């Protein structure tokens, strides 16, 4: 009986407006991050067109760094701002993901496929980070709308994100900004491919967030409508 009461209380806490707001914030942050990465790509093209100065790359080895020129210095600013936007995006996306996961558990009445801790650790633990985050999104959608097919945007987002994360020059790169500048001077195309993957992932991710959010908002409103009907029937019966 306690479990039933807890479930009813959890259903009472479902809020379509808060889910929609979280989705707007996460989707908007993804688009902002994509825009920031597009600006970064523009600066890399500018570096490639300008060509490496006669003094050589910024990092000249053996701990020696020459003074940056104006374009190189502005690229540092662009990458720093892009990193800040990406961090905010990650926080808002995780908040949205945790919300839709928990809501899906209540709506479906079954335990999620992935424990709550994987909402966070699933991105950083080697091997499982290749599929856990996508799995959490897919599981939340299927639990919310089992009669529907998983949106194509979810798979497109994940494939592009993996390319952007593990392409060696994208989201996860061990190179310093000065080393990336040297890459832009020497061969910019790998950088631009990684940038394009990140931008594409951000756009597809925004569509995926929108689709999952819309399905959940619809389901919550439907469940709340059923609750109102039950209360009305109870009043009439009483």
**Helix percentage:** over 70%
Q: Give the CA-CA distance, first to last residue.
A: 23 Å
How would a textbook summarize the main sheet? none
Instruction: Give the helix/strand class.
Output: mainly alpha
User: In sequence order, what are the helices and strands, one letter per element?
Assistant: HHHHHHHH
> Spans with pLDDT under 50 lasting ≥5 residues?
1-9, 228-236
What does the average pLDDT come to?
88
Rg for CA atoms: 23 Å
How would you describe the shape? Answer: elongated
Q: How does this structure look, described?
A:
This protein has one domain (2-237). The radius of gyration is 23 Å and the shape is elongated. It is built from eight helices and no strands. With 238 residues, it is an all-alpha fold. The chain has helices spanning 2-13, 16-50, 70-108, 118-121, 132-144, 152-166, 177-186, 189-237.
Defining traits:
238 residues, 8 helices, 74% helix, 0% strand
Topology:
Elements: H1 2-13, H2 16-50, H3 70-108, H4 118-121, H5 132-144, H6 152-166, H7 177-186, H8 189-237
Helix pairs in contact: 2-3, 2-7, 2-8, 3-5, 3-8, 5-8, 6-8
Task: Describe, in short, the structure shown.
The chain is mainly alpha-helical.
């Amino acid at each position: 009986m306690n479990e039933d009461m807890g479930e009813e209380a959890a259903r009472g806490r479902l809020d379509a407006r808060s889910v929609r707001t979280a989705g707007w914030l996460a989707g908007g942050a993804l688009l902002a991050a994509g825009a920031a990465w597009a600006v970064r790509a523009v600066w890399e093209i500018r570096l490639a067109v300008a060509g490496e100065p006669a003094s050589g790359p910024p990092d000249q080895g053996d701990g020696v760094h020459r003074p940056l020129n104006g374009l190189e210095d502005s690229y540092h600013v662009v990458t720093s701002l892009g990193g800040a936007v990406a961090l905010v995006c990650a926080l808002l996306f995780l908040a949205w993901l945790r919300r839709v996961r928990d809501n899906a558990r209540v709506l479906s009445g079954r335990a999620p496929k992935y424990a709550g801790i994987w909402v966070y650790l699933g991105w950083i633990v080697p091997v499982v980070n290749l599929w856990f985050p996508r799995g959490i999104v897919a599981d939340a959608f299927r639990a919310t709308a089992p009669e529907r097919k998983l949106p194509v945007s979810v798979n497109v987002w994940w494939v592009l994100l993996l390319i952007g994360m593990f392409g060696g020059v994208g989201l996860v790169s061990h190179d310093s900004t000065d080393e990336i500048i040297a890459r832009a001077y020497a061969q910019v195309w790998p950088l631009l491919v990684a940038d394009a993957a990140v931008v594409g992932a951000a756009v597809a991710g925004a569509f995926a967030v929108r689709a999952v959010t819309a399905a959940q908002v619809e389901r919550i409103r439907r469940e709340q409508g059923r609750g109102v009907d039950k209360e009305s029937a109870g009043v009439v019966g009483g």
